[in-house]
Amino acid sequence: MKEVKVQAPAKINLTLEIVGKRVDGFHDLKSIMHTISLYDYLTVRIEQAENLIIELSGTSDEIPYDEKNLIWKAAEKFFEASKINNVKLSVYLEKNIPVQAGLAGGSSDAAATLFALNHLFENILSNEQINQICAELGSDLNFCLKGGCAICSSRGEKVRSIPFLELPVSIVKPKCIKISAKEAFEEYDLLENKETLNNTEKMLNLILRGQFDESLINNDLETPMRKKYHPVNNMKVFLKNSYMSGSGAIFYTLTPNLDVIFEPDEFIFFENLKTIKDGVKIVEENNV
Is the pLDDT at 208 greater than 70, yes or no? Predict the structure, then answer.
């Protein structure tokens, strides 16, 4: 039996610009993403078995622990690509990243699963194969695998690393709101008079020169989500210099602390976070 514990970080979008609608129904994006020091932890164990068995469990009661979970789907794709069919896989998920919040928690967990399995099976799949599986499973997995600061394009799966930004981060989310990416993009498509700011390119040029301008932070999905959900709009109104990440409903500030007091019964919030240089990584390893 072999076991690893993997750290899967959340991400924030410093920019998220929608370039256009694709023929496959997805949207072409330009986005600058950064991983932050908020983590899920996955304990991934493998042992010999007569047939392929996958078992998934964890601390959250907000997610399924079956074939609907992206962790499960990632494992299935890994075993299919590697032609391994005589192992029992057990994954225990310590869930800290809020669900359906725009922080890519599910994507990061799936990327961590692929990373852990490939390590446990001594890199049986190439980096190109792992990245291909990531791209098949979703738009954020390739970035979560790599981490740090990057400009992401196409659906988000094309990732180019750019210089790391050392920034404080605090985040807050209304507990009553859960937003899927599908819903957010559908609401965006209904918007009239869409703005084209080109802030991703402007911010990229600054970062490449070792500079940063907070006024360039922009998320094209923020306006439709603020229009649809009053709690989301209230976040923007009451929380000074705050920005929505991904499809929401998380808002973040580039400050060590939030300047508004939030009730724990109504909000999920984290302070004293920071941007990090890592994507998914192994933090503990055991051979029994």
Answer: yes
Q: Which two tokens stand for residue 33?
A: 């993403």
- What's this model's pTM, rounded to 2 decimal places? 0.95
Q: Where would I find the H helices in 138-208?
A: 141-146, 181-190, 199-208
Catalytic residue among 140, 146, 173, 220: 140
Q: Which domains does the chain have, with CATH numbers?
A: 1-288 (3.30.230.10)
Catalytic residue among 11, 77, 95, 173: 11
Q: State the Cα angle at 15 between 10 and 17, rounded to 5°.
A: 120
> pLDDT tens-digit profile of 57-97?
999 999 999 999 999 999 999 999 999 999 999 999 999 99
11 is catalytic: yes
Q: Is 24 a catalytic site residue?
A: no
